[in-house]
Amino acid sequence: MKDKREAPRASSSEEIVTLTDSATCVLREKLSAESSRRGTEISGMRLSLRSGGCAGMSYEMSYAISPLSSDIRQEFEGITLYIDPLATMFLLGTVIDHQRDKLSSGFTFTSPRATGRCGCGESVSFG
Predict the structure, then answer these.
(1) What distance in Å separates the CA atoms of residue 69 and residue 91, rounded to the nearest whole number?
(2) Cα(115)–Cα(28) distance, integer angstroms
(3) Which domains does the chain have, with CATH numbers?
(4) From its phi and psi, is residue 39 left (phi > 0), alpha (psi between -120 and 50) or beta?
(5) What is the reported pTM?
């Protein structure tokens, strides 16, 4: 007789997002500079999604002095990300990178769950 157990569920220790080396380096610099500027330790970055933009949703990163009780915590080589649990289902598998070119620099988010992007790259849609 076949075993009909459920598939294992993802544990909270599994990575929701991945940071590239470039993103990790830039975030480390930004956190250090912001901590110095404010005169207080910034514990990490908060990652969430908000409604808006041409395609419907935008990624949002902000400095976090302390975690919220609901945050999901991920560590990357000394960088702490506090992830909004409401955004988790959209963020699973997302790769965060930082790119620089002659005219601009910024973080990019590549999500296997995204079904579309606006032309300017500022917002994303999920089907």
Answers:
(1) 19
(2) 30
(3) 17-113 (2.60.300.12)
(4) left
(5) 0.79
